[in-house]
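G.,

No rush on this.
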Amino acid sequence: MGVEIRRRKRWEELKQANQIVGGRCQGRGFVHGGFVTHCRSSSLAEAMMTECQLVLLPNDGDQIINARLTGEDLKIGVEVEKGPLVMTAMDLTEPAIEAILSVLKPHFILAVKTAMDENGEVGKQVKDNHDIQREILLMKQGLESSYIYGFVHNLHDLLKL
């Protein structure tokens, strides 16, 4: 059985078992009220607009940088830790994929539990920071408008000198 067929079959099994809520598109999905994102800029922007806790699962390139900024600097999500096997795996044969998934699974579960635990220190901090960032993005005036307003205000202050 091919890898893609097995993935689809496993996805359907998880959906039927109510382990996954919602859909999956471009590498993101909802898991128990959390939003799993691969951290491309558009996926991350969409994730930040939700009220879900963010679980960050980057693959490569800018996704890793975006995940570190989101998880470590802004503290609005929990990144799934990946071992050296996952980070250096170039062999995408079926046994290699199974090995990667077996290594990644406990780290993924831990990240989801950490992000979803609103009584835990990290979960509470992530939720609070995410709420603040979402409000900034959704504010009535709009983020871009606020930059323009601030720029114009600063110009007026300069002209008063």
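When you get to it, here's the other one too:
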Amino acid sequence: TKLKCNLCQLVLSHGKNKNDCGTSSMMKHLSVKHYDTFQSLRAQESEDKAGLNTYQPAITDAFAATCPWPQDHPQAKAVTRRLMEMIAIDMQPFSIVEDEGFRRFCALAVPRYNLPSQCHLSEKVLEDLHENLNFFIISNLKQRKTNRKHSTCG
């Protein structure tokens, strides 16, 4: 098998053995005929190796990136909130979370998210959302009432 130097177009042999696919003949050619290029390649190779060895995550960190989020995790809460928004806006039934296609989609889109059951959505999440909305509305009404008392009519 032959190989060709891209710098000078010289054709080189891999070696005596036909099954030998090594690069030693090309490296020797580069070191002798193209010394500057050879040195810059070696320097780049050293930088690449040094960069690879600077950080290796702990095994616990590597596995943590694949573990599902608990329900109280901020990301899980945010996804659940958006799920509830989607259900409300698109007028979907809570049972959508039990549909196989939807479950597959969520597993691909947000692999660390555990889809809640339709019972959990309709009882716990909806109740919490209702309480939060009531608090928000009442707070805004009180604020408007306070602002009206302090405003002057002219």
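The chain has two domains: 2-52, 69-150. The chain has a mean pLDDT of 82.

Enjoy the weekend,
O.
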